[in-house]
UniProtKB/TrEMBL annotation:
This is Translocon-associated protein subunit delta. Heterotetramer of TRAP-alpha, TRAP-beta, TRAP-delta and TRAP-gamma. Keywords: Disulfide bond, Endoplasmic reticulum, Isopeptide bond, Membrane, Signal, Transmembrane, Transmembrane helix, Ubl conjugation. The keyword tRNA-binding does not apply. The keyword Disulfide bond applies. The gene is LOC107226742. The lineage of its organism: Eukaryota, Metazoa, Ecdysozoa, Arthropoda, Hexapoda. It is found in: Endoplasmic reticulum membrane.
Length: 169
């Protein structure tokens, strides 16, 4: 039993020593948002970013929080490229800026603790913030082309019959 406890302590100490935290993070990001929603039910949001740390930390595990949702940040390559993606219902998605708050493991556990204890999650300082702009989705024309064609056909028919009745009277 004592060996198991000693092994656990060694494992925890080793993982803490090897885990790097990012000092003075710099983020450069690009984003994609679905803009044509004529046949879709959800809007897709995707942001890719590169994290540069002043201490040269690589492979930092990141988590994201957007509008109260927590998401994993997927590492795309060894040179600290990450991606965060999510979808929202067209009716709930708003146009404007979305703040994607990024947390390392320590910040993420503090965020989860704040949520679990009913505290304000904004009290936990994120590692970095990526701003994603949603210009809004095109939902289609105000009047469908089929409806417009039906109205035009009815108008042409009415005009033709009116002209015929005037000529016959």
């Amino acid at each position: 039993m004592n060996r198991l406890i000693v092994l656990c302590i060694i494992a925890v100490t080793t993982s803490l020593a090897l885990a790097e935290t990012c000092q003075k993070p710099e983020v450069s990001a690009s984003a994609y948002v679905t803009e044509d929603a004529t046949v879709l039910t959800n809007i897709a949001f995707t942001t890719q970013f590169t994290l540069k740390c002043s201490n040269g930390a690589k492979g930092v595990s990141l988590y994201a929080e957007v509008e109260g949702k927590t998401l994993p940040a997927v590492r795309l390559s060894a040179d600290n490229k990450y991606q965060v993606s999510w979808t929202e219902d067209i009716k709930k998605a708003r146009s404007g800026d979305y703040n994607v708050n990024l947390y390392d493991e320590e910040g993420y556990s503090a965020l989860r603790k704040a949520i679990r204890n009913g505290e304000d999650p904004s009290s936990v300082k994120p590692l970095a913030v990526v701003v994603l702009n949603n210009p809004g989705a095109y939902l289609g024309p105000w009047i469908n082309s089929e409806l417009l064609a039906a109205f035009l056909a009815a108008f042409v028919t009415y005009t033709a019959f009116s002209a015929k009745w005037k000529l016959l009277s």
